[in-house]
Automatic annotation (TrEMBL), chain A:
<dbReference type="InterPro" id="IPR035906">
    <property type="entry name" value="MetI-like_sf"/>
</dbReference>
<keyword id="KW-0813">Transport</keyword>
<keyword id="KW-0812">Transmembrane</keyword>
<feature type="transmembrane region" description="Helical">
    <location>
        <begin position="135"/>
        <end position="155"/>
    </location>
</feature>
<feature type="transmembrane region" description="Helical">
    <location>
        <begin position="101"/>
        <end position="123"/>
    </location>
</feature>
<keyword id="KW-0472">Membrane</keyword>
<feature type="transmembrane region" description="Helical">
    <location>
        <begin position="291"/>
        <end position="311"/>
    </location>
</feature>
<keyword id="KW-1133">Transmembrane helix</keyword>
<dbReference type="InterPro" id="IPR051393">
    <property type="entry name" value="ABC_transporter_permease"/>
</dbReference>
TrEMBL record, chain B:
<comment type="similarity">
    <text>Belongs to the bacterial solute-binding protein 1 family.</text>
</comment>
<keyword id="KW-0813">Transport</keyword>
<feature type="signal peptide">
    <location>
        <begin position="1"/>
        <end position="27"/>
    </location>
</feature>
<keyword id="KW-0732">Signal</keyword>
<protein>
    <recommendedName>
        <fullName>Carbohydrate ABC transporter substrate-binding protein (CUT1 family)</fullName>
    </recommendedName>
</protein>
Amino acid sequence: MSSSTASAPGRGGTSPAPSRPPGSGTRPRATAVKGSRLAFWVFVTPFLVGLVLFTVVPIVWSTGLSFFEARGTLTPTRFVGLGNFAHFLTDDAFTNSLVTFFVYALFIVPVTMAVSLGLAVLVNGLPRFQAFYRSALFLPVACSYVVGSLVWKLALFSGLPSGVANSALGVFGIAPVSWLGSSPYWWIVLVTVRLWLQVGFYMVLFLAGLQRIPPVLYEAAMLDGVSAGFRRFRYITWPQLRPTVAAVLLLLLVAAFQAFDEFINLVPTNPSTRPPLVYLYNVALGAQRDFGLGSAGALILTAIMVVVALLQTKFFGFSAAEDRTKAPRRRRGGVSA
Amino acid sequence: MAPTSSRFSRRALLAGFGAGATTLALSACGSNDGGTGGGGGGGGTSLSQWYHQYGEEGVQQAVTDWAKNYKAASVSVQWTLGDYASKLSSRLLSGSGVDVFENNAIDPASARKGLYADLSDVMDPVKDQFSEVALKPVTIDGKIWGIPMITDPQLLWYRPSMLEKAGIAVPTTFDELLQAGTELTGGNQKGLFFGNDGGAGVFSQAIAVAAGPGFLSEDNKTVAFNTPEVVAGLTALQKAYKDGAMLTGSPTDWTDPTSFNAGLAAITWQGMWALPAMKKALGDDLGVMAVPQVGGSGKQAVLVSQWNEQVAAKASNLDAAKALAKAQWVDDAEFQKKFAVGFGFHVPPKTATAAATTELQDGLAKQVVDLTGQWGYTAGPFWAPAMGTALTDAATRMLTNGADVATELAAAQKTCQQTLDSLAS
């Protein structure tokens, strides 16, 4: 067990070194291209400086600030210990923002997953014009959430009878709806705008997953009598897509946590549709400018996101996906033995 | 030759890339908020003056021209698009990039943390020239932190022709107002437009004022709006919302008169700034009224918002910045008049200037000025944004979720009192 360490090149181990391919030297660095170190730092330094200045320093500063009162200032004013953190335990507005997130995630995650996977399967199966449909469906990803929100608000889901959605309802004799003025209608607006903006991205991820499934699996399935349709998807495609599904699920959850633009543009003052980021924006960067409280809230939210991501990874994530794909083989082996 | 050239090119490329990345990073630290203008003047002193984006055309040109003509310093005008409050706040915190600025929400926390320059030395000798309602928002802890620029009365406007067609008299009581809203609703027309949120944002606050108590007690120690009269007023508003009497989900919100001008609502909540646009679209088919009294102990209400000129405590040249603010908003009455009525309509906070502004001396403009003088209400700086959010949240839940009015109002009062107490500490 210890031989691997003892025999490591250049460590002076006494065990015989493992055989090397002919021509490999004992000083690997000698093969480095001259000037590559300089090039490395030239390329990396600007981004490293940016990372430290705009990410590391603010995180450290924010963490420090969370233990202080700091209203209208970024300078710690009065030490309050865990007071800012304790505030959120009794703050109904914060709790409600988390409820809003869960309601939103409950809609957006499965719907995006189903629609993007369905589109990917359809596009992947197209005999012609696949690139066209792939590009057309991906195009909305290039649109900003602000623009998308304005289009949804001003044209599609305006509360006026002349809005596109209300005009469509009018054809069936249904009275105009104030889409952003009452529940559950605002969820339709919030979910559909994000769906339109993000489904193309996840469709491309699923397409990549579909295209790495070896065709021999489908050929073998065909020989076993599973030729097409839902059974082929269930027994071949879906198990092979598990790692992609796990990645998409994680990305969708994180994206749902980060929901901000469409909410601030479509329903800026409604407490029933205020996700955590909008709530924290109001506390720290909006009119309240309570940076101590905002920093504590940001840390709490980060902790929640980490826990959710870890749980998701544990139950639906990459390792779970691998285990599940291996499990049937072990069972089969046991039976055959 | 070739290897040398190749090596040089690679290094040059790397160096160029590094320089480009650095330039990009540095340029990203700047802002692209709508451009700057002005300049000129002199004396070797440079000042940056910030404005938010006014909706009326011509304002930017007017302030830029004024800056060019100012001789005591070189003034660059920053016309700021988007979320002005947040951008201004970040600049004040960083302590650079803004010397003189307008602000409509002077808050005690920022004043006490030293983000604003104390303008008492500028204002004390002339404060008698300003209206009392204009001085209240800029006065904190006995000091004056801003020079009132414009006051903006907000009240109810209606279409007489629509009321006449429906056989309805101009409402004189709160119940009549909401009843008229219901009766004026039909087809593609709604009776009332208090904002796309049904009035949760501003009209709920107008009810708190029209019912008597206002937001805070006179000494700014106690939250005052939780009374049976306010509960009754908000309950009536809740019923009107439920009955579908309100325009909601309009492409433009109440601050923009487009929906009202287009005939989508018969009665609207609107600021005086929109009077020229409404007159242009509707001619004489326009009337104005204060919010009727709510309950037996209330009084009519006109809400007054305001913009103020302030100086950053960390201004590059504090004396020059104060001199600029004084020259423009204390001394130059002609510019103040032009700013007040040359584009949208506002009321100059200096009483003499307001009296000398002929555009405000007759018609609807005079009615608004008179109503404001009689019923104008401003909350003052201790009505913090967090309190406004608490009341708006409560009203939104009442309207959109049908939440119990008394329970929501009591919860909002509790939140507001906690915030108020924290401001006092």
